[in-house]
Amino acid sequence: MITMIRYLDELLDERGRRHLRVMLAAQAGQGILQGLGFLLVAPLVTTLTTTPPDWSRFWLWAGAIAAAVAAHHALLAWSTSLGYVVGTDVLTSFHERLGNHLATLPIGWFRGDRTGPIGRMLGKGTMDVANIPAHLLRHVVVGLTAPATMIVGSFLLDWRIGAAFTAGALLCALALRLLMAIVRRNDDDYDHDIGVSASRIVEYARQQPTLRAYGVLDRPELGTLEESLIRQQGSQSRLTIRGAWGMIAFFGTLQLVVTAVIALTVGLTLNGSISLPVMIGVLVVTLRMLDPLSQLGELAGTVQINADAIGRVRALLAVPPLPEPAAPAEPAGTAIELSGVRFRYDDADGGAPTVLDGIDVDIPAGSFTAVVGPSGAGKSTLLKLLGRFFDVTEGSIRIGGRDVRELGSAGVSRLTAQVFQDVYLFEGTIADNLRMAAPHATDADLDRVARIARLDEVVERLPDGWDTRVGEAGSTLSGGEKQRVSIARALLKDAPIVLLDEATAALDPANEAAVADAIAELARDRTVIVVAHRLSTVVAADHILVLDHGRIAERGDHDSLLAAGGTYARFWHERLRARGWQLTPEGTA
Ligand SMILES: Nc1ncnc2c1ncn2[C@@H]1O[C@H](COP(=O)(O)OP(=O)(O)OP(=O)(O)O)[C@@H](O)[C@H]1O
Asked: Measured from the CB, is residue 351 less than 6 Å from ligand 1?
């Protein structure tokens, strides 16, 4: 529990921390007063055993009990309302901190399989964490301080009863630890599985056409949604069943301890070791102690689940952000220089394979460079490093003579426009999607870039023109149309460097020609690096880099590379064969 409070304290801001500490003090006071109220029953009963009863002392003790009960209820009301204040502090602080932190993480960190877990953490995860101060902490703090007060006080009644309570409390603490350990282990599995299912549900909805086309909706061996849902149900049942066993162990121990203390008290009373009023006092304390302890046992599982949520928020906050320079450097031009670039993904344990292995390239400003090579060679990774989605593991990438780490992410983003394969369009109109790149662009600006990117014909065809809503992730536009929107967006941004990952999917001839024209237009007056899949793009390039297993296998222009008869020539002939074309002396698409 102390760890949980420390984590909450760490994650809150100064104001939230102050509220948390005051709330904890109020709750601890509440628990102590509750314990005292019950302990005072023994001296109260003693005043009635004299003949005549000692009424003045009776009213003194009765007054003390009434004061303890009244103060306890006042603190209860105060700490409950403080709980909501701290819960709200936690929600605000967590959303702010997580939002700020996510904005500093490398873009490449946001893989598809992370969307489910992140969404769950920002939604249910933060609610779980806010639930701790709002609803749970009071029961935990009172559940510990009230019995602790009663145990300390019971030594004043009789040391043997005090010792029995202490031994019983240790046993209960062990059982509680066991229960929480069981829940923690199984909740980790459950949370992981539910995150996977959430990602799979999104994937399942998005990939319907592919799944149906290949008739693989029912094939569990492909690791489908059904499989992940079954796994999630399994981990949920394990959490419930094993958690129930943990609860049985805790409540069994509690019953055993209570029975043993009652038997001891009755035994000591019968052999005359303790008086009748003390026996009544001990029995009242024992039975009243059951209440907060039972509540603690019932809530232990929920407390653990919510504490796990804090652990996950902390783990996310511990993902190192991309370092940003205090004073970003200014590039001198847009020539790009890669020296000794090596890169491994997610290299926390040092075991990840090297994806790029010693890349040395100079890309002159204003040139058009095509990157080709077999699947998995590292082409898209190279493009992502140029856009500073990640930092290189070794070596350096310089733009305009300055390392991208000195330029900072914002500097690199200002210099580059990116057109990637999986074009993401936001729910909104086509115009909104373009204005992301330049919020103050006029309608005339939109028309100009639309003409160049051949988006104008798409806009004219659509019933609402620029105001046509594109649907979530651009689902209402074809692949070629989405690429045209993306190219128009890059043109509107008017960055001097364009990073373009050409779509591998075949486009219809009209879209293919339009996209090729748009790329040629984009390349005018800009430094363009294209991961090229279309022969027309490759041939148009000034330089071609052939990547193979993370290294540059060949470089040069189309004619010299074809004449060399190496990897590039093989790539070229394969592509021609795939398209069923004859190799002509021009060799162009
Ligand atoms: N986010 C990632 N995390 C871990 N490994 C990755 C990640 N992205 C790519 N890889 C791995 O890095 C290697 C290079 O991938 P990359 O996408 O750069 O290749 P590519 O040449 O662009 O391939 P393709 O032409 O098929 O798109 C592959 O082995 C791939 O599995």
From this structure: no
Gyration radius from the chain CA atoms: 35
Position in ligand 1 atom list of the atom nearest CA 547: 21
What is the 358 CA–ligand 1 centroid distance (Å)?
16
- Give tens-digit pLDDT for 117-152: 777 777 777 888 888 888 888 888 988 899 899 899
Query: Residue 189 in contact with residue 235, Cβ under 8 Å?
Result: yes
Both structure tokens of 405: 């780490």
- Where in the chain is CATH 1.20.1560.10? 2-317
CATH classification of 2-317 is 1.20.1560.10, yes or no? Answer: yes
For 50, 266, 274, 286, the CA distances from 271, given in Å and listed in that order, are: 21, 9, 8, 20
Fold for domain 336-578? Rossmann fold (3.40.50)
Query: Does the CB atom of residue 112 touch ligand 1 within 6 A?
Result: no
HEC profile of 148-186: HHHHHHHHHHCHHHHHHHHHHHHHHHHHHHHHHHHHHHH
CA 278 to chain centre: 56
Kindly report whether the global pTM for this prediction surpasses the value 0.80: no
Looking at residue 261, its pLDDT comes to 92
**Ligand 1, atom 4: closest residue by C-alpha:** 345
Q: Are the CB atoms for 556 and 372 separated by under 8 Å? A: no
581/131 Cα distance (integer angstroms): 65
Task: Name the residue with the closest Cα to ligand 1, atom 25.
Answer: 375
What spacing in Å lies between the alpha carbon of 589 and ligand 1's midpoint?
27
Distance from the alpha carbon of residue 375 to the mean position of ligand 1, in angstroms:
8
Which residue among 107, 380, 502 has the greatest number of ligand 1 atoms within 8 angstroms of its CB, and so is best to mutate?
Answer: 380
The token pair at 124 is: 């249910």
Residue nearest ligand 1's atom 13 by CA: 376
